[in-house]
Amino acid sequence: MGINKDARVKAIGAPEDGDLALINALARRELEAGEVYTFALRLCDNDIDRDCERFDGQTLEELAPLFVGVPGVFDHQWSAKGQTARIYRTQVVDGDGSLTRDGRPCRWLKGWAYLMRTPENAALIAEIDGGIKREVSVGCAVDRVVCSVCGEELDACPHEKGEEYGGQLCCGVLTGAADVYEWSFVAVPAQRRSGVVKSAGRRMEDEARLGRKYLKSLRRELVRLAGVAEPGADHALLERAAGKLDEEELLGFLKLCREKTDRLLVPGVQLSYGPEEGPRQEADGAFLI
């Protein structure tokens, strides 16, 4: 999710031993060392980012080989004109003693990239060396986003990102590397020490995310109303039951719960009168007019 705090691209300049062979595996012709410029960067890590999400350690391992051969662009604009460099080697780095925001040992994905030493790239190389082009972010997709508190799908569980539960901060754990699209130079990465865009942001993915959010809101409302209608019901049991219902079932149960809660919450009259059981006895009838 970003570059180093280090949130910076670490310039190398010339290929290291063995790197030229890896670069030539991606090139159409054999390149000489003097033709290419190489640099290393921090692609993403397992720390909690500005979106209150993080990669798990296994997902970083899965992402590493997927990034080999992936191009770099600017601001996640998918255009061939914006392609600047290409990753030729990756490695998961750990054991440096640093900790994540929630106290876990920090792990991060390091990438080595190259670009051609051409007049058109001279300005970019100068900006990398000068520390102007530093922050990066990655565009990728994952299989699941699970809750760090309960381990369930984040969109289906009752917990909210950024909230604390029993002293534990809830965040979305990005699990299972599905695809990698690009890495990009950006101004403000999501990850503080690098930066990340977790998905391609395509329309279908956005619609799926909104659909999950809608179902989550229905489930939360059902649990709330069911708790009002049946005060003695176990809250955890209601959450589990609601989590297994689809939209039609949720809407049906919500209707029933609303009808019951409406009856329970209708205010009663202060005075009530029962039916008269017989003729009224008038003690002072002689004085009535």
Structural description of this entry:
With 289 residues, the protein is an alpha/beta fold. It folds into two domains: 10-143 and 175-199, no CATH class; 206-265. The protein has helices at 19-24, 57-67, 122-129, 203-229, 235-243, 247-265, and strands at residues 10-13, 36-45, 53-55, 71-74, 85-93, 108-116, 136-147, 164-165, 168-169, 172-185, 196-197. The strands form two sheets. Strands 1, 2, 3, 4, 5, 6, 7, 10 and 11 form a nine-stranded mixed sheet that branches. It has a two-stranded antiparallel sheet with strand order 8-9. It is elongated.
Concise structural overview:
The chain is α/β, with parallel strands linked by helices.
Characteristic terms for this protein:
single chain, 9-stranded mixed β-sheet, 6 helices, 289 residues, alpha/beta, disordered C terminus, two-stranded antiparallel ribbon
Please describe the topology of this protein.
Blueprint lengths: L9 E4 L5 H6 L11 E10 L7 E3 L1 H11 L3 E4 L10 E9 L14 E9 L5 H8 L6 E12 L16 E2 L2 E2 L2 E14 L10 E2 L5 H27 L5 H9 L3 H19 L24
Parallel strand pairs: 3-10, 4-10, 7-11
Antiparallel strand pairs: 1-2, 2-6, 4-5, 5-6, 7-10, 8-9
Helix content: 25-40%
N→C terminal distance: 93 Å
Helix-strand pattern? EHEEHEEEHEEEEEHHH
Major pleated sheet: 9 strands, mixed
Integer-rounded radius of gyration = 30 Å
Give the averaged pLDDT, no decimals. 79
Give the total of beta strands: 11
Q: Supply the number of helical segments.
A: 6
- Compute the number of structural domains: 2
The percentage of residues in β strands lies in 15-25%
Shape, principal axes of CA atoms:
elongated
The low-confidence runs, each spanning 5 or more residues with pLDDT under 50, are 1-8, 194-205, 283-289
Structural class: alpha/beta
